[in-house]
Amino acid sequence: MAGTNWTDSTMEVAGIKLHVARAGRGRPVMVLHHETGTLDRLPFYDELAQSHDVLVPHHPGYSRSTRPDWMRSTRDIAVIYRGLLSDLGLRNTALVGLGFGGWIAAEMASMAPADLSHLVLVGAMGIKPTEGDILDLAVTGYIDYARAGFHDQKAFDRIYGAEPSTDQLEMWDICREMSFRIAWKPYMYSQTLPHLLGAVHRPSLVVWGDQDKVVPMSAGKRYVEALPQAKLHVVKSCGHCVDMEQPDILAKLVTEFIGREYSPCT
Amino acid sequence: MHLMYFTEQPMSAYSEQAGRDFGATALMFSNKNFDPVAGSRLYNNYIEQYMLAEEVGVDGIMLNEHHNAPFCMQAKANIFAAILAGMTKRVKIVMLGNPLPLAENPIRLAEELAMIDMISKGRLVSGFVRGGGQEQLATGVNPAFNRERFEEAHELIVKAWTETGPFRFEGTHYQHRIVNPWAVPLQKPYPRVWIPGVISKETIVWAAQQRYPYIALNTSIEQTKKIWELYDSVALQAGYVGGPENRGYLIQVHISDNEEKAIENAKQFRWMQGEFTGLAHPVWSTPSGYGSPSNRRAFVEFASGRARNPRGETSFEQQMADLRIIAGTPKTVIAKLKRILEETRPGILALWGNDGRVSQEDSLTCVRLMGTEVFPALREIAKSLDLKSPFEADAPVHLRYSTDLKPAKAAAAE
After folding, report:
1. Which contiguous run of DSSP H or E holds residue A205?
2. Is B303–A141 a contact, with Cβ atoms under 8 angstroms apart?
3. Cβ-Cβ contacts under 8 Å for A27 (sequence gap 6 or more)
4. How crowded is residue A265: how many other Cβ atoms within 10 Å of its Cβ?
5. pLDDT confidence of B271, banded at 50, 70, 90?
6. What is the per-residue pLDDT across A3-57, written as a single tens digit (0 to 9) for each?
């Protein structure tokens, strides 16, 4: 969106150089991207930054952040991001997790329920679906996998181009390698997370595209059961990547849920 | 010269059309296409081929393993090694090899191999491999840690073979609080380890650093020479001079008493729709993190159909012309192999004699002519070229057992 003033910086947390994009004013909102990494700018980020202080860190080992060879679990990323928020002096940040980023957000919520304003999980991985399985990166081609996140293929074309560049494919491979390093087995979920979420007594919104081909909605229902204050919102005619396919609708949902008003905690 | 017989042990009794319809003949190509009745017959055919190979005087039988694919029926090479340990009397049992990263418990592998070595009365050559990309997926092993697991499992196995237990092993990927296997190898310090490979420079460098022979798998003469250049330069850095005892080569060679029939049978080397590993699915064959980062761009281009296979694809005729497939009567085969021996100077040679749907009768003819006519001639050629095997050269099993190491500069001067 024209006029959104993004700043990009590198922040070091526990020896990891994290790329962090930030824009907007208001309640702090951390957006956690997909396992396919993230583009630098996306309409969804711009929309949110109209009324919030939006932070988009690139996960360690994904996109512009360096890979820590020692990292072994998705929970490690959650701990690093808790450190990032602490270093930035941000309290009660709202977390918006997209797909794999939803898993990270849920882990972060479970670590410090009191230090969280709202939790939004969109097509989140992290919980074993009761019906169906999470789409396997390891046996799906780069473009096929990325396209599987979209119900409307024209939306994919708008974001990545009808023929994504070889640089993009290479980046998807780098992201994929990092996902394998931290989420290989069990693949893309934690067996303990559903139990830990029982302590997250915070407003939670679980959003799912009704055409999600990557994470079955049964996982979303488990999230709603596990989180004490969660409600489910289903987005119609939308695939897994709600943020890229229907950015306006998701931004509106998030903004209405977390509210525009914000007074920093003392 | 150490001369071996090899077959991939193909499960060729499946519908080729089913493979073409599915678009791949590996990993997820359904095992409903596997016929255990044919499987039983074929396993026993292969035993018969190996027994004949021993009878006609081959030095070694080379074994390997693969998973979820018709091109190789051995899902566990140690099973066939155990069979050969009990049934044969003389041949070396050359495993090329056990895929180390697939092991969740390398101690178990160390025990199995030690048992094979004892039962065979010290005839085991224990090669190790990383396993193909598809193998990682077929066994649920993380491809991103493949090389780390390979090196660490190797370290643990060698320790289990050479250090008195009980001891504790706390690695990155393997943690064993009690290592004390009662089965230990007969051969001391431990059975010879040979490392086969095709493309990864890292593996060549690693093998040379260990002073383990590297077995080039059906590479072209030019590729093979480049492999030895790299191996030899690393050897000099490590303080020794690489030679034939460090060099092995596997090549597709079908022998018959009739030229035309030999060529007809040799076409079966490409029975898996062009490549011996079958109709490959590029995403499965190179899962992210499995390959070298320097090949990342080439592989993503291949995986997305934007480039040709970096491993190369060549026609039967071209492979015949390049001497990557040799077929003929003993006389013509010997002449062609002589050229390879002269140009690449290996001390270990494996002939991959039969593949695909070659009949058992023709396979046995090939093995017989290999042992009675081709190998005796190759032994004479090897003698004239001074191509000594690791056994003949009494080469150290590992760099650390070397008695001839020199500072890098002095080794280079030799």
Report:
1. strand A204-209
2. yes
3. A52, A53, A94, A117, A258, A259, A260, A261, A262
4. 9
5. confident
6. 689 999 999 999 999 999 999 999 999 999 999 999 999 999 999 999 999 999 9
Take residue B305 and report the two structure tokens written for it: 């159909």
Q: What is the pTM of this model?
A: 0.95
Q: B401: which residues sit within 8 A by CB, 6+ positions away?
A: B189
Does residue A187 belong to the interface with chain B, where contact is any CB pair within 8 Å? Answer: no
Pair A246, A220: CB distance under 8 Å: no
Q: Are B287 and A138 within 8 A, CB to CB?
A: yes
List CB contacts of B293: < 8 A, sequence separation 6 or more. none
> Which stretches does DSSP call E strand in B155-246?
167-170, 175-179, 195-197, 214-217
Number of domains in chain B: 1
Residue B68, amino acid: N
Contacts of B298 in chain A (CB under 8 A): none
CA separation for the pair B7, B94 (Å, rounded)? 12
Interface size, chain A vs chain B, as Cβ–Cβ contacts under 8 Å: 58
**Nearest CB partner across the interface for B301, out of A137, A140, A166:** A166
DSSP string, B363-405: HHHHHHHIIIIIHHHHHHHHHHHT---TTTTT--SSGGG-S--
Does position B314 have pLDDT exceeding 80, yes or no? no
Angle at B75 between CA B283 and CA B324, to 5 degrees: 65
Counting as low any pLDDT under 50, the low residues of chain A are 265-266
Report CB contact under 8 Å: B289, A138.
no
Option in A141, A181, A185 nearest B283 (CB): A141
Chain A residues whose beta carbon lies within 8 Å of the beta carbon of residue B304 = 141-143, 166, 169
Structural domains in chain A, sorted by start: 7-257 (3.40.50.1820)
Single out the residue of B173, B182, B37, B31 nearest to residue B111, CA to CA: B182
ipTM confidence: 0.94
Torsions phi, psi for B324 (to 5 deg): -90, -20
Q: Residue B197: which residues within 8 A CB-CB, separation 6 or more? A: B129, B203, B204, B207, B214, B215, B216, B217
Cβ proximity of B241 and B393 under 8 Å? no
For residues A75 and A105, give the distance between their C-alpha atoms in angstroms, rounded to a whole number.
Answer: 10
The verdict on a CB contact (< 8 Å) between B303 and A172 is: no
CATH value at residue B270: 3.20.20.30
Contact residues on chain B for A142, CB-CB shorter than 8 A:
283, 300, 303-304
> What span, in angstroms and rounded, lies between the C-alpha atoms of A215 and A133?
7
Helix (H) or strand (E) holding A110: helix A100-111
Domain of B244 in residue numbering reads as 2-413
Chain-chain contact of A139 with B303 (C-beta, under 8 angstroms): no
